[in-house]
Amino acid sequence: MPPLDLAGRLAVVVMPLMLLHAPSLAEGSIAVADLCFLARSALESDWRWLGTRWLHVALLWWGWLVICSVPIPPLGPGGAHSLVEALAVVRFLIFAAALEHWVLRDLGARRWLFGIVAAAAAWIAGNCLLQFATGHNLFGAPRGAGGAVLTGPFRKERAGPPLSRIILPVIVPAAAGLLQYRRVAGTLAAYALLLGAVGMMVLIGQRMPLTLTGFGLLVVGLLLPRLRPVVAAAAVAGVGFVAAVAVLSPPTYARVVLQFFMLLRHFPTSPYGEIYARSWHIATARPWFGRGFDGFRTGCLLPEYFGPTFGGGLPDGGGAAFCTTHPHNFYVQALAEGGFPGLVLFVATALAWLAPLARGLWRNPVPLRVGLFASMLIQIWPIASTSDFVDTTMGGWFFLLLGWALAEARWGRAAVLAITGATVVAGPLRAPIGGKEA
Predict the structure, then answer these.
(1) Burial class of 146 by CB neighbour count within 10 A (0 to 12, 13 to 18, 19+)
(2) For the segment 7-44, what is each residue's pLDDT rounded down to a tens digit?
(3) Most buried one in 49, 102, 255, 428, CB count within 10 A?
(4) Has this prediction a pTM greater than 0.85?
């Protein structure tokens, strides 16, 4: 294997491990993959990947973000730091293109990535189970939020978001493959996988990851008819798990159920309502350009944006007391950073990503592609509380899975994956076992 190809592949397959415990090193993986991809394109004079449609739209969004961040009035008031950070966002776009067109073109590379992502999901889930049973994870860290949240292998409350994204591409092809055997043991194992996944997300005790996982499973059930009974059983079991948690872990029940409904009832004056209202006031004050990259953080503290919350519950919108580093929603973030044009371009980019991922799934629902599509859909779903869009801790997972999903859509008609010693076909449930590379 040529050195550039080897370096790029190694950088990608180790990235899930870096994202778990060393996000700064994950940035190094992205940099290595990007540089190797660009060097290879230059050496071979092969720039055909620049013709990718989603990349055109994404570069328009990125370009507008850069323009809005230029520290020249009336543009980016965030200064040179804002501009540098905006320029650096392109690394994620190049990374996704590198995965789609180069690193994951080979079936073997995609198999390796599947195995490592599956291991990462098992690592998080295993530590969560240990913490639920003993009160501490493998490193001795206790539960978070006063015992209400399982932190898994981490010391902070961040097990739910990554697990909710990576668990679907892992369990959906596995469950589909087990059902193909048409044996009692395989059917029971398929049910156990999906019910176990839902139970794990309930135990973790983070509202949004649980909600998004449930939504993702509904998408899976819609696209994969033979998995619908399993998904329906998982949904019913999920309700039962929540009821059981009221007895097994009252703090978790209070956080997942009671606090959730309290948040919805008083949303306008909740911290999220205050954040969204402040973002709206920033956008209406600067409708064309927003405040550039990191615009919410640099603008939230300024009294000129202290407008009332939605419904007028707080005349000053909460002042500066609630201000955070980002507005906890990708679309609100795009609005605050790039104004209304930036929001439109970000929506277009999200749709441009989903279009190739969804192509052909209704007619030919490959389980692995379905799992990846559901994962990407819940990541960019607009009604959600999120991290910063390009924060490596979660943004790294998103662009890794996005590049993988794009590669599967482009190159993989069927993938035979080894799971726990058994061979599982990640191809269509209606198709024969096997298949060749596109």
Answers:
(1) exposed
(2) 999 999 999 999 999 999 999 999 999 999 999 999 99
(3) 102
(4) yes
